[in-house]
Amino acid sequence: MSDVGLTPYLIVAAVLFVCGIVCMATKRNAIGVLMGVELVLNGANLNLIAFSRYGQLGFDGQAIAMFVIVLAAAEAAVALAIVLNFYNNHLTVDVDQARQLNS
Amino acid sequence: METVIFTIYALAACGGAIAVMVSQNVVRMAFWLVISLGSVAGLFFLLHADFLGATQLLIYVGGTVVLLIFGVMLTASGPMLTIRSGPGEVVLGGLVGLAVLGMLVFGMLSVDWESQQTRMYSAAAEEGRGERSMGYNPEGEGNTARRLGAALLGVRFDRDLGRNSETLSTGYLLPFEIVSVHLLVVLVGASYLARTKRRRPNPLEESLES
Known about the structure:
The structure holds two protein chains of two kinds. By secondary structure, chain A is mainly alpha-helical.
């Protein structure tokens, strides 16, 4: 049973991270931006667990990854509530329409 | 065998993430997000983090994505389903993304992880910390639920037991408490934010009418 090693996991995590970044930057739908955030957090989680398996991080990586999962769930709940409120007020979820503070 | 399974999961995770990025329809984006997150859970299982893989499946795929799909259903009405971003933004975002990806991959390929790891092991052996605190002990591999729960309650099985160390590690009791209170506050706040606002009858108008 051959071992995969650290680097392939890191590359997968980097691809997830970059896809999330591009998603956050280019999507105009607010829920698309939220999905980008989820992808970024997943990439970070994969990095943490890969280092906890192959690096010196040990068991701490898994504990921190669990905190990241919980905080991502909390973030999704609050952000979705904000998006729903925005939709109720503006009847759109286009983030480019949120420019009331722009003089 | 492990390489084959890793390749399948890695391709599914990366392909799902790229499809989330490329797709314009929100519902399809949610579907591809499920594919990507589920494959990342498979990668967690491959990394012997079984409890975290199960948590990923339960909380992310079962909770967060369902929440996002509810958001899509509540907000997607006709033209909102596909909001296209301009071509200039897409090109610019793609270029920046490729640059960041190139930087990350170059950085992680230029580090020699193997020698780094052996050096860490030898340094830890010199300090007197045994093999047990490094990564996993092989007989306990894939059995992480009990140790994770104990670490959240402040006891570190992988550090404290079996050795007469002077320093007891503290575990994660305080962050666990903070995160639980934080989750409670967040859920109360989210339900407060998302409630339907009832228009309060104006007492002045009522007195004028009567």
